Amino acid sequence: IIRASKLVAKDAGGTSDPFCTISIGDKEAMKTKVVSKCLDPVWEESFECVVKQDHCRWIHVCCWDHDSIGGNDFLGQCF
Fold this sequence. Notes:
It contains no helices and four strands. By secondary structure, it is mainly β.
């Protein structure tokens, strides 16, 4: 996961605290770090995992705004 740009501000201060989750098939596999108070985050994170061909039909990346209280807010996704 390299970066995101022009994310929507979900926090009252006009920013977001974005992080990404990476799911392989229907199982969440990895998460990036949270980048605090940023709408153009840079993660530059790499992940490795072993995936059996018959268990992986897709890779799903979701971007979220981290919230300490309540649930995280959805920012975007790609498959």
